[in-house]
Specification:
277 residues, alpha/beta, four-stranded parallel beta sheet, 45% helix, binds zinc ion
């Protein structure tokens, strides 16, 4: 009569292993750090999740789309790609450096001297929590220099990997393919991306083409503070908003696919090189 107990033991072991495996593979109850309790966060990071997406934005005028565009866009991007890249999402930094646009209603600029150490502390805190791959989804060009510097310091001090993504530049060829022309700040590209997320907050009824100005050409030819327009075309005669819902959806999907691809590919290459594992 040794067979039955052995079967029971085998079943119990199998059940225990299955339960363990389920705990390991069970998806997080949410991917948003701000919604996780500390206990679940502790179970997930770094044992189960090694990557975090952190959106950095700004509060500044954007033609006829929301003042929070630079925060809302990378936040929506993070939500769309988090499962694909198996990452958690850190809370968005909704304020950025926007000195040249602070004259416009509703804009708030954080001076670079205050912004840079704050941004670095955010990245440092994420590294201290055990994330190995910190993906900065930046929505605002005025933040880029400070973010690149913070990324470099935190990566080398904490021995983690940091990627700063400026989505509108990464998507340059997608913009040209979808709209058949170049883009602009609050131009066709950003307006379409926002129309895909918050169509009810896009205001074509307020739009006039004369609200747009091309960027100085050649670059550095002049500098105006406040900027004379909030729609700033990368290239003269191109990048005006189109307000086309179908185009907006297509653009949103293609941009996010490109960002997810970059994140996965960069992590794969870091792993292959064996740097700061
Ligand atoms: Zn913007």
């Amino acid at each position: 009569m040794t067979k039955a107990p052995r079967t029971v033991t085998a079943i119990l072991i199998a059940a225990a292993l299955a339960a363990g495996a389920a705990a390991q593979t069970k998806p997080p109850t949410t991917r948003e750090m701000a919604l996780l309790c500390w206990q679940e966060f502790g179970e997930l990071v770094p044992a189960r999740v090694r990557t975090v997406l952190v959106p950095f934005g700004s509060l500044e005028p954007h033609g006829v789309i929301p003042n929070g565009t630079d925060s809302l866009a990378p936040e929506a991007m993070a939500r769309d790609i988090a499962a694909r890249v198996d990452a958690l999402i850190a809370p968005t930094l909704n304020y950025g450096v926007t000195e040249a646009m602070k004259a416009y209603p509703g804009a708030v600029s954080i001076p670079a001297a205050a912004y840079a150490p704050f941004a670095e502390a955010v990245l440092d805190g994420l590294a201290a929590n055990g994330f190995k791959n910190i993906i900065v989804l930046n929505g605002h060009g005025g933040n880029t220099a400070a973010l690149n510097e913070a990324a470099t310091r935190v990566a080398n001090a904490r021995r983690v990997r940091v990627l700063v993504v400026n989505w509108w530049t990464l998507a340059d060829d997608i913009t040209k393919a979808v709209f058949k022309q170049n883009g602009g700040h609050a131009g066709n590209n950003e307006t379409a991306y926002m129309q895909a997320i918050v169509p009810e907050h896009i205001h074509p009824e307020r739009y006039k083409p004369e609200m747009a100005t091309p960027n100085p050409a050649p670059s550095g030819a002049y500098y105006a503070v406040p900027v004379q327009s909030t729609i700033l075309l990368y290239e003269k005669g191109q990048g005006y908003p189109t307000f086309d819902a179908a185009q907006a959806k297509e653009y949103f999907r293609k941009v996010n696919d490109r960002v997810a691809e970059l994140v996965l590919d960069t992590i794969k290459k870091w792993d292959l090189a064996g740097v700061y594992r």
